[in-house]
Write the structure tokens for this entry.
Amino acid sequence: MSKKWARHIIFLIVIGLLVIGFGSVQPATVSKGTVTETSNKKMYEGIKLKSALIGGGTYESLYEAIPKFEQETGAKVEIIFKDNNYNLDKKLTTDFTANKIDYDVISTHSNQISGYSDALEPLDHLFTEDDLRDFSPSILNAGKIDAKPYMIPRLADISVYYYRTDLFHDEANKSKFKTEYNYDLTPPQTLEQLKDISIFFAKQGKGLSGTQFAGKEEAMTGRFMELTQAFGGDFLDEKKNVILNQTGGLKAAQYLRDLYAAGAMPKGVVNFLWDEVENNFANGKIAIYSEWPGWYSTLDDPKSSKVAGKFDVVRAPEGPSGIHPGWGGVHGFAVTKASKHKEAAAALIKFLTNAENMTNESKLGATPVRISVWEQVLSDAKTGDERKQNFYNTLNTALKEDFRTPPPIKQWIPLSNILYPYLQKIIVGDMSPQEGLNAAASEITKMLELTR
């Protein structure tokens, strides 16, 4: 063989080895938070995630961040349903019962998740300890069933009382109230004072009602539960026997009935849900009422509220039992068991509940459930205006001392669906508290026995 051909063969062998060698090199992997990308393809490119989410009010702002998730991961997110919590729960319950689930991620709530946990994916294999370390343990537990996480929290909820400072500080109002009730007009410290104040302002006329409550669906049931507890009662005893028709419940029902009969609440109160009660206060029609923290920014915005800058908040007034009303709950996200893209669905939830997005929601009044974010919110409040400082301090006290969730039973919503129509009849005077609660207790007991 000539030297020329030998050199040619060696050259071809070298080229072949180089091609084989370079062909085996994989594209570099880049870690980016919860998202992993290659130089050629994003991690969830080609995946379409469908979601059913809570909507309305300040819930909407979070979803404006979804395009960032899509850009980072390559996934596409379609919101196929969005409505208030009650309509969302009805859809989820209907779909899960009929096994017609065409979505991957849902909004859910600690009060409701037990009702359809069988249709949800346990998240312990999709979220590591590090993923969950920053969440408040007690809040995280609200989304657990049999010690496994089924819901990742978005925000915590407990109400404080919003009151009109322009009305409470008005000298004429203060003088009239002192003359009639023989004590000073200040934010109420007890439920009895709340009743006095509500009746007083309603008597002033000018289209003003003293107070209001959401008057239907689980909204009514939850408000009644916290009042029942403040009057020394509860819905169920330790053995899960129904006791809401005993002394505490009877006093709470009579309390609501008395407010309505005195004209202290609007005539249409039994038709109100969250949007209606917020709108009434925003339009200057209510003197004081119980409201969730997430509405604070909307109510303090002159573009959406006539009472912006004219209200403050106070801890829920104490009941005769020494308990402050404290119906608490946790909003969050879950992955459906039917999802074909569980890892991508979990990535979306990690994104929606990350520190950045939670911080942004907290600026609108949402109560953050990451420890780091909540600590920063409280720190920032120290240098803010006095009203904002009071808002967060009051909220912090309520979370620490008053937070109580409904009984952890799968039948919570069915229980509510039985109870609230009787409460409506009691409030408007169609049934006595004893008659209405006895009937409700009897039906609830039968339902619990049939579904245990």
In short: The domain at 160-325+411-451 is CATH 3.40.190.10 (D-Maltodextrin-Binding Protein; domain 2). The radius of gyration is 27 Å. The chain has two domains: 35-156+328-395, 160-325+411-451. Residues 1-38 have pLDDT under 50 and may be disordered.
